[in-house]
């Protein structure tokens, strides 16, 4: 972490900071209040809403103290994938009239290059992609190793397949998963 974490009392203060700094700053670490901790700090949902409005995204998270944690936010890049959760949040922010020009620009770029349509499902709803199941079925040792993993471990393993845009990229991601299970 390169700078002291920023603290905001609410989403409006974070949004004002983004409006003033988003063109000159590429990232920010925020101190976020834990749910029901009564910290008076910015809530995680409000932080993400503000970030999405300006074309930023949540990244790394670190523990901090008993009432808060640190969350890194940064500008999206041309390779930043979209989750279905964030697509839905962005659409709600547009409908509410809160989306800002930088956010619209990131959405337009994602729609143009296919990342928007390829938004990945959250872990709670995710199932292994069919092409991965087919590849695992063809390699019994890999399938056995996959089945021995917890649901969370499986998701982390096949998340790159879900995030891959286009059939060739998905195929390469499937190959990497199978190879990792047989190594």
Automatic annotation (TrEMBL):
Species this protein is from: Nocardioides marmoriginsengisoli
Protein name in UniProt: OmdA domain containing protein
Top-level lineage group: Bacteria
